[in-house]
Amino acid sequence: MPTFPLDQFDIDAEEFITSCSSTEIKELIQYLIDEEYIKPNSTVDYDTPFSISEQDFEDALNKLHGKYATLSNEEEEIIKAIAKRF
Predict the structure, then answer these.
(1) In angstroms, rounded to a whole number, what is the distance separating the alpha carbons of residues 8 and 19?
(2) C-alpha distances in angstroms, 30 versus 12, 15, 44?
(3) Is there a contact between 18 and 7 (Cβ–Cβ < 8 Å)?
(4) At 56, is the secondary structure helix, strand, or coil?
(5) Residue 20 CB: number of other CB atoms within 10 A?
(6) Which of 4, 43, 49, 62 is the most exposed place for a label (fewest CB within 10 A)?
(7) Sign of the dihedral through C-alpha 75, 76, 79, 85
(8) d(CA 78, CA 73)
(9) Residue 11: CB partners within 8 Å, gap ≥ 6?
(10) What are phi and psi of 16, to 5 degrees?
(11) Is 80 exceeded by the pLDDT of residue 52?
């Protein structure tokens, strides 16, 4: 993991993450999954290229994340029905 000068106690998340290597960031993500801060199936492997339609699909899912309160009952039921298939 990155190191910081001893007199620097106030390190924000952005500064910490930008100081990490890609391997360290993957370790951090795995730690967050293990500690249940991130759901295991909510991460995307960006090392594997997406097709255009798959990227559009992932973008659409990301837009829906956290929008529960804005969904109509019908939209909520549609999403639940799709999720039940899997």
Answers:
(1) 14
(2) 20, 19, 12
(3) no
(4) helix
(5) 14
(6) 49
(7) negative
(8) 9
(9) 4
(10) -65, -50
(11) no
